[in-house]
């Protein structure tokens, strides 16, 4: 079955710096890769996702890149702000396929220092 | 309405109690999920309902009993729980199962078993 590895487990950056979180997946049938942000005591919130037919997607300060050949995808946050502090989870799924569930990485705790 | 709602927000129960968690969505989604999340861990899939029928049971102990009364509602009945069952219980929904689009999470119920 699918396995998703996420690195680093913790990341501390200075406000205004960029942050990058990387995930690798094992199942070449996976074609949907969402990123969730979970603030302390709150729900996982979908912040951006990418499908395998594109290599990059951007939404303001957040971008996701996908390398299908290498089976890895990354979350990039630019101009970080204290409110970006949270745990970020990557996930993989095969839309409409046999692996119909989200397989999550173990999470990255991002701390943005003012 | 683009939200998944859950009640109660917090629940404390003894090992002999019977309680229920409730989840509701009005997005017309046909798939609903129960996840269990321990601190500093990703959500762990428990059950998936598709078109009000149980599609996935991830070998969850029988002290957890899901129910889907209609396409908008999902319950999780709890009986004879153990202290290690204390966790955040998240409900989620998506348009279809297997997953074809985004999956959205509710705010969760923080369960403490004494």
What would you note in describing this structure?
The complex is a heterodimer of chains A (114) and B (114). Chain A is mainly beta and 114 residues long. Chain A contains no helices and eleven strands. Chain A has strands at 4-7, 10-14, 19-25, 32-38, 45-51, 56-59, 62-67, 72-77, 86-92, 103-104, 108-113. In chain A, the strands form two sheets. In chain A, strands 2, 4, 5, 9, 10 and 11 form a six-stranded mixed β-sheet that branches. A five-stranded antiparallel β-sheet of chain A has the order 1-3-8-7-6, with no helix packed on it. In chain A, strand 4 (32-38) and strand 5 form a beta hairpin. Chain A starts with a strand and ends with a strand. The mean pLDDT of chain A is 94. Chain B has 114 residues and is mostly beta strands. Chain B is built from no helices and eleven strands. Chain B has strands at residues 4-7, 10-13, 18-25, 31-37, 44-50, 53-57, 64-70, 73-79, 87-94, 103-105, 109-113. In chain B, the strands form two sheets. In chain B, strands 2, 4, 5, 6, 9, 10 and 11 form a seven-stranded mixed β-sheet that branches. The model of chain B has no long low-confidence stretch (mean pLDDT 94).
Largest interface: A-B, 27 and 21 residues
Radius of gyration of chain B: 13 Å
Classification by helices and strands of chain A = mainly beta
**Looking at the structure, what is the overall shape of chain B?**
globular
Low-confidence stretches of chain A: none
In summary, what is this structure?
The complex is a heterodimer of chains A (114) and B (114). Chain A is mainly beta. Chain A is 0% helix and 54% strand.
What's the SSE blueprint?
The complex is a heterodimer of chains A (114) and B (114).
Chain A (H helix, E strand, L loop, with lengths): L3 E4 L2 E5 L4 E7 L6 E7 L6 E7 L4 E4 L2 E6 L4 E6 L8 E7 L10 E2 L3 E6 L1
Parallel strand pairs in A: 2-11
Antiparallel strand pairs in A: 1-3, 3-8, 4-5, 4-9, 6-7, 7-8, 9-10, 9-11
Chain B lengths: L3 E4 L2 E4 L4 E8 L5 E7 L6 E7 L2 E5 L6 E7 L2 E7 L7 E8 L8 E3 L3 E5 L1
């Amino acid at each position: 079955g699918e396995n998703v590895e996420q690195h680093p487990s913790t990341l501390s950056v200075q406000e205004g710096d960029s942050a990058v979180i990387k995930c690798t997946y094992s199942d070449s049938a996976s074609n949907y890769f969402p990123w969730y942000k979970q603030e302390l005591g709150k729900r996982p919130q979908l912040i951006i996702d990418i499908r395998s037919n594109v290599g990059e997607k951007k939404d303001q300060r957040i971008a996701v890149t996908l390398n299908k050949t290498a089976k890895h995808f990354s979350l990039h946050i630019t101009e970080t702000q204290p409110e970006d502090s949270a745990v970020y989870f990557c996930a993989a799924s095969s839309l409409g396929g046999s692996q119909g569930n989200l397989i999550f990485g173990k999470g990255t705790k991002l701390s943005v220092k003012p | 309405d683009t939200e998944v709602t859950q009640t109660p927000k917090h629940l404390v129960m003894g090992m002999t109690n019977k309680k229920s968690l409730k989840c509701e969505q009005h997005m017309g989604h046909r798939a609903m999920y129960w996840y269990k999340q321990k601190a500093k861990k990703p959500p762990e899939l428990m059950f998936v309902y598709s078109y009000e029928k149980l599609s996935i049971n991830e070998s969850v102990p029988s002290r957890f009993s899901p129910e889907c009364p209609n396409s908008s509602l999902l319950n999780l009945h709890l009986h004879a729980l153990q202290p290690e069952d204390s966790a955040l219980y998240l409900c989620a929904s998506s348009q279809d199962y297997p997953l074809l689009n985004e999956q959205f999470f509710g705010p969760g119920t923080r369960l403490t078993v004494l």
